[in-house]
Amino acid sequence: MLQTFRHLRPVLLLLGAAGASRAQMAPIGSIISEQSRTAFSIQGAGARALGLGGAFIALADDATAVSFNPAGLAQMLRPEASLVGRGINRGVAFQDAETTAGSRTLLAGDSLISNTRFDPLLAAATVPLRVGGRTLAIQLSVQRIFPLGEGDSRDLQEQPADGSPARRLRQDISQDGQIDLYSFAAAYEVSQRVLLGLSANLWRGAWSLSSRSTSTSAQGSSYLDFGQTSRFEGANFNLGLLWRWPTWSLGITRRTGFHADYTYATRLATSARPDPVASQPYTTGLHWPSTTGVGFAYRPSDRWLVTADVVSTPWSDTRYMSGRPALDGVNFFNLNRGGASPDATQVHLGVEHLFLPGSGRVIPLRLGWSREPQPVTDRLTGQQRVIQSVSAGTGLKRGAWTFDVAYRYGWGRRAASQFLDPEQILSGTSVRTLGTETLTEHRVDLSLIVQFDRSPVQDLLHHLFVGD
């Protein structure tokens, strides 16, 4: 038992000080970074944008502009209420795996996990006004920028090459929560060509992770239960510029970096120490990086549109700011002080064609492609998860009502490690299960926009803030 407790010391350090080196914290650190923080990819919200592969910075001509380029809100002519929701199914296959444990080599069976989640992504109310002969648009919105729900079970059968008894590894993972943005935005038509926009954002998030890993063989079984709760609070600005010409437009956006308050608490129980070891909630500073995006849109005719975006986020700058030396300067995603957490540059491309069947109807057809690197790398192979996707979308505009729908298929492939093996903690041995990870993603976004008559809204605002 004394030997086992000694091997638990790195975990206790993590629970009490969230520190020590990356080598000490593996594989617990792997759980936090690779299973709790896989969805941290800056994306806008909108079915029209998704159909265009997410390339919307230089277009941004509806209420979802606040999540791409707030300057685009100044293009709106009528008050709007907007709702966006999504459904997503994500599957991860782990194949051709081999485990190295000391001098032993084990062939591991394939595993497949899948989970489905539904989320509201955006709710917004937007009012355009005429000020100085130009459009001033104001908006209140709530965006779910990071949906963090997951739930899956993973099974792996290991058969030693030397004929010794087989071993079964199983991991049950459950995570629930999200980070939301509460925004007030304003955009102004400085001139016929230039639009400027600004949104002030409050970031509020809470999520919890629970993981149970078991190892079972003829010699017996062992388990490890790990859990973490997290809260995230911060504030920043999103700045936008839109430069318009009859056949093309250029958009630039900047999400400012900020210092957030991050609060976490962890707990751990193992077959060697069934009584849970838990930490008290601890609040630390967290530097959240800025995000910069540039977009270009070209209209070769009234019915055709081609658009492209490039978005960059220096995730390596996402670091704790703490009075605890073991935690200060550690990266949020890989729990390392080095530069192992890669920066991410996303690329989005889209094309749209409008069909006009008559009776005031407009039916668009949209196609898109995107490449979105994730901030987390595998702790053993060092390979980054990169998701490529293709998308298609359409919609229907009839009078004051606009409905859009888009479907996206995403995929990714890399060499990766798998599972939290309790034996790494309980026996102190070096156990590595490596194989090929293949990710597939099916996503559907729905958007509904309802426009209202401008005059009653303007009259009400004039009465409230100016007088009769």
Explain what this protein looks like in three dimensions:
With 468 residues, the protein is mostly beta strands. It has one domain (2-465): Porin. The chain has helices at residues 2-17, 22-25, 28-35, 47-51, 422-426, 454-465, and strands spanning 80-101, 104-108, 111-131, 134-147, 150-160, 167-189, 194-217, 220-244, 248-255, 258-270, 277-278, 282-288, 291-301, 304-313, 319-321, 344-358, 361-377, 384-398, 401-417, 431-451. A hairpin with a 2-residue loop joins strand 3 and strand 4. The radius of gyration is 25 Å and the shape is elongated.
Write the layout of secondary structure elements.
Elements: H1 2-17, H2 22-25, H3 28-35, H4 47-51, E1 80-101, E2 104-108, E3 111-131, E4 134-147, E5 150-160, E6 167-189, E7 194-217, E8 220-244, E9 248-255, E10 258-270, E11 277-278, E12 282-288, E13 291-301, E14 304-313, E15 319-321, E16 344-358, E17 361-377, E18 384-398, E19 401-417, H5 422-426, E20 431-451, H6 454-465
Antiparallel strand pairs: 1-2, 1-3, 1-20, 2-5, 3-4, 4-6, 5-6, 6-7, 7-8, 8-9, 8-10, 9-13, 10-11, 10-12, 12-15, 13-14, 14-16, 16-17, 17-18, 18-19, 19-20
How helical, in percent, are the residues?
Answer: 10-25%
Q: Using the coordinates shown, work out and report the CATH topology.
A: Porin
Top-tier CATH class: Mainly Beta
Which segments are poorly predicted (pLDDT under 50) over 5 or more consecutive residues? 1-26
- Structural class call reads mainly beta
The CATH superfamily appears as Outer membrane protein transport protein (OMPP1/FadL/TodX)
Number of domains: 1
Mean pLDDT: 82
What amount of the residues lies in strands?
Answer: over 45%
User: Radius of gyration over alpha carbons?
Assistant: 25 Å
**Largest beta-sheet characterization:** 20 strands, antiparallel
Shape: elongated
Report the span from N to C terminus.
81 Å
Number of strand segments: 20
CATH-scheme architecture:
Beta Barrel
Count every helix, treating DSSP H or I runs of 4 or more residues as helices: 6
Order of helices and strands: HHHHEEEEEEEEEEEEEEEEEEEHEH
Keywords: Signal
Protein name: Long-chain fatty acid transport protein
Signal peptide: 1-23
Organism: Mesoterricola sediminis
